[in-house]
Amino acid sequence: MAVYTEVSLDEAAPLLQSLGLGQLQSITACAGGIENTNYFVDTDQGRYVLTLFERLSFAQLPFYLHLMKHLAQHGIPVPEPHAITAADGAGGKPGDILLRLKGKPAAVVNRLRGRSELAPTPAHCAAVGETLARMHLAGRDFDRSQPNLRGLAWWNETVPVVLPHLDEAQSRLIRSELAYQNHVAASSNWHALPRGPIHADLFRDNVMFDSEGDAPQLTGFFDFYFAGCDTFLFDIGVSLNDWCIHLDSGAHDAARADAFLAAYQAVRRLSPQERVLLPAMQRAGALRFWISRLWDFHLPREAALLQAHDPGHFERVLRERVAHPRGLTC
Ligand SMILES: Nc1ncnc2c1ncn2[C@@H]1O[C@H](COP(=O)(O)OP(=O)(O)O)[C@@H](O)[C@H]1O
Ligand SMILES: N[C@@H](CCOP(=O)(O)O)C(=O)O
């Protein structure tokens, strides 16, 4: 887990009060994330998550926070950011959802019920696929735009930075995959792909489920802080690479992938171009996270508690996707 900025109960309490969320009773660092500082905050009125943003700026954040608000208001299960209800004495105005704490941009959102499912079945994958398709449709009339900041331009900038840390076989793979992705992004099929706001980091640890009853109940998608406007197919590729593989080898799991894609397509049918480019976008998803994990691993930031993710995992996933491209079966 990562805590880049320590926050005490006394420091957080006035902020919670300015949001009309009551008296702060406890504040506990969240395990799991690597990007931001997250705390569970419980008040006498409810349970919330306080995030201090460590890399994203005041200028970039309104896109993410308003996207979450828009999706929540369109019935997609995501944590809704809370707005200031009364002047907070620190420059915040009523209605603001982008807050400030200890000089950092901050937000307070609802805490989702349940827990992440780290060993998903086809039923979990179907729930994620269906909700992702509904999210893509709900995002189409969102009126703000921001590019995917971890998209092709960032890969082109960052690969030269991580290359000195790679052996020869890894260098060959990363350079040839980057060249392939630049080639795909210049194609007419890629330009014709449907696009809009995407989550772009929809891994098992960014979805909550309530496990009561027989069928898993998805209680929400969270951690929208890599979201951006990009192709819906890239979002699908990223999600399939985490939800529908065997984590030890990176190999595709057909039963989970079929369940995910059938449920997605029951809500939004893939276009002919999307069907052609699905294997390429799965490779793109693997490349994106191989690069970011290499970057985090070899050029780490200071954090009180931080566990860098293993870059070797996405090298294996990428090799699998290149060696065994899987098209659609439905
Ligand atoms: N809205 C939320 N509801 C419930 N738990 C949350 C919520 N946001 C974050 N968490 C918890 O905090 C952990 C870290 O959050 P995450 O968003 O993944 O961190 P980061 O911003 O560093 O990626 C998650 O694994 C989850 O347990
Ligand atoms: N999902 C990414 C890491 C991004 O960090 P998160 O904690 O914001 O999900 C990966 O696995 O590399």
From TrEMBL:
Recorded catalytic activity of this chain's protein: L-homoserine + ATP = O-phospho-L-homoserine + ADP + H(+)
EC numbers, comma separated: 2.7.1.39
Keyword Thylakoid: no
UniProt KW Mitochondrion keyword: no
Family annotation (HAMAP family): Homoser_kinase_2
Keywords recorded for this protein, A-Z: Amino-acid biosynthesis, ATP-binding, Kinase, Nucleotide-binding, Threonine biosynthesis, Transferase
Protein name: Homoserine kinase
Chain's gene name: thrB
Top enzyme class: transferase
GO molecular function, one term: homoserine kinase activity
Native species: Polaromonas eurypsychrophila
InterPro entries reported for this sequence: Aminoglycoside_PTrfase, Homoserine_kinase_II, Kinase-like_dom_sf, Pseudomonas-type_ThrB
Aminoglycoside phosphotransferase domain sequence ranges: 27-268
